[in-house]
Structures are given as structure tokens and as C-alpha cells.
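*** C-alpha cells ***
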Amino acid sequence: MAASGLRALTGEAAALPGPGGLGVRLAARLRELIRDAGALRPGTVLPPTRAVAAEFGVSRGVVVAAYEQLTAEGFLAGRQGSGTRVADLGAGARPAPKAPPPEEAARPGVPDLGGFPRGRWLAAYRQALTAMADGDLGYGDPRGHARLRTELAAHLRAFRGADASPDALLVVGGAADGLTLLADTLAARGRPRIAVEDPSSPRAHALLRRRGLEVTGVPVDGEGLDVEALREPGRLGAVLLTPAHQYPAGIPLSAGRRHALVRLAREHGFLLIEDDYNGAFRYDREPPGCLQGLAPDVTALLGSVSKTLAPALRLGWLLAPPAWAPRLVHDRALTHPTGHTLDHLAFAHLLHTGDYTAHLRRTRRRYHSRRLHLTTELAAAAPHFTLLGTPGGLHLPVALPPWSREAEVLAAVRAEGYDVQGLGECALTPPPPPDRPGGGLVIGFAALTPAAITHLVGVAREAGGPPPPPGAPPPPR
């Protein structure tokens, strides 16, 4: 579409209707044309921002702001080298029904895979392949390539407050890979009992049990893991927790709980395993720094790019206490004698150039917008649903009204193709009966278009049922 064609659709710059500056009014008019009038159909390529700015006689920044706003909301989609296009809202509005196997279902923390920076990654890959030495094609360091560990240590120090050095880092195939390595080491050290947050990720429970560990739950409240509820700490080998943004409750571990947990770990000699789940995403303020930065002597930090870039890259890191590092490196060398060096060097390039942090800034804006859309839809269409947690991460926990049943609502939204998890499914002890009234949902919003979010909320509201008439007895618990 030529710039003049866009101008013909939207009208003269000065005459664009609505409140706010020109950028706001231009975004509103384009949103209307895409969503309501259908004048801008899916796949339509919008003209470059410079051309639009020249046609309207405004600064390019005004047009860039409008494009970025609509991209964050899901109305537009940009890809390196192919321009900005109108997104296919219908594709996300009613996903095709599917019936995945239980072990693959309900992954509400999936990022917006369409926002993966393909062009930047391709350029980084080419640069890595061109610049790498012949020796880089060998088995290499089992900890991962030194260049990536150097860049990653600097990034973790600057953005997560970690006490990180290149020599203490191991590059692994994601957080689950790092957790497997730690679990095997715990079992070998003769301390196979591990405490986990309750509720927490069912996949983590299953992984730990598969590695032969005894899993015990610790309640979570408004301050995170309840340290006083830890039973027999002298028997523990480790505590696994998500202090930046607890899964699924969506709350950070309070400062008081952090200090209490560190004191207990030092006193009884157990390891704190910090899964930095969604540590990069907080929307009302800067995210809290990692627990490892407070107590590097007793904390192992796990992180990955699965939420920030894409799970398919299988890139993660393990920052372990000095006393644990030699055994972990030894075991890593036995099971993974070589790493994915090209991927390591490409990611190191993204970190070094600042492209990774720029990508994080873009995705934060996009995800914040989608979370706001979800909370607005819930307030309007499902006012009896209660929002939980703090504004961060890629998921929103929601408590259902007392007359609803979690299993019924889950069945309805999953039949529409949504990967929504139940709060009850994340409970460790005791598992709630499926027909118990109430419960809640864990809704991943990062990968959903605004239309898909609206549809999901409508399905959940209908499945939850209307409130009982005044004077009716409360549902049995």
C-alpha cells in the first residue's frame, strides 16, 4: 500500500478524529480500520514510516509510535526485512480445537513466537559462523563457550543483580536441563529430599521425582514461600523456588522471606535452587533482583531464553555456588561433551550488541499491553473473577467465583484450543477433587491476540455459570 493510499483511508492528519496527539489518533484510526471496517485486511503491508511521515507532514517518530502501539496490541505484525503487515486477528480469535496429550498440555508461559527477532538472529548466526575459529568446531568447554559466558555474566550482573563470573557459569539446554543436572547431583550427595513451592509447576514435580528425589511441598502466601512452614530443614538437600514471580501465584518473594530462607539454608547446609522464571518481566516497576545476588554461597540460579526469545533455542544457564561447581562441570562433561557452539556465539553476539536487551524492551511493551487487555476484559465480562498476583510475567492467575468449578471451566477453554492451566492442577498436597467449587485459572496472555483474549474470557465466563440467586445456600466445599 502506498502512503497516499493510507492517507486516503485515514484522512488528513489534522482531521483525524479522537482525543490525544496525532500518534494516538493515527493508531486509533488504523485500529478501527483493521478491527471494525475491514478496510485493512490481514497481510496488507503498510507503507514505511518515513513515507507516511512525509505524506502527512509529521515527524517519523509519530508514525513509529503508532505502529509500535498497534504491534504491541497485536493488530500489526513486523518482521525484519518484510515490513509491517496487518495481523490475522481471526486466526487467534477461535483457535482450532485440539486434544494434546496430558504431558504436553497447558503451557501458559509460552512467549509470542511471532515476535522472535528472526533477522537479528540470522545476522548473529552469520557473524558467529564467519568469525569463529577452527578450534570452535571441536568439543570445546563443557561449561559452554567462553565468549557467551563472559557476555552472559555481564548481563546477569547488570540486569538481574547476580553475583556472576564467567568461570561460575554453565550454559545448559534450558532451565529443565539445569534442574536435571542439579537433581542428579543432589541424589549423588545422599540428600535426595527437596522442598518445592505449593502450588508450583507440575512438570517440575514430575522431573524431580523421575530423578529419584523425594518431593515435599511448602505453602505459598502473599509473601511467597512460607519459610516458617519448612519441615525438618536438616533433612533437606535443596529448596526449589521462583522468587521473582512465583508460578502460578504470580507474586515475588518478600525481602523478609529472602533473608529468613538464606539464614536457614546456611544453618542446615541445603541448596537454594532459584528458577528465575519470568525474572525479566515486570510491568509496574523494575523486577526484583535475583536471590543469588543476595546469597551466592548457597544459591544456584537457573535461567533460559525460553520466555524471552523462544523455547526451541534450548539455551539456558546455571550459576552455581563455588562448592558445587566442580562436580557439576564434571557431570556435564560426561553427559554433554560438547555444546551448541554456533548458538552460543550467536546469543553472545546479541548480548554484546545490545540487540537482546532491545528485544526485551519491545516484548515488555507488547506483553504489558496484552495483560492490560486481559484484565480489562475480565473486569468487564467476568467481574466475579478475581485477579491474583503482581503485574509481571507471561501468565495471569485468576480465582474463579465460588459457584464455578475449575474442571468445567478448564474443559471449556481447552476445547477452544487455549493452553490454560488450573490452579488446582498446580497443587502438590493434597490434590483437590476435580468437582470442588471454586478454584482458578492460570492464563498465559503473551501469545494471544486481543481478539483471542476477548474470546477466551467469554468462554470462561459462560462455562463459569451465572451467580446463584440471592438467598441461595452456598455451594458445598
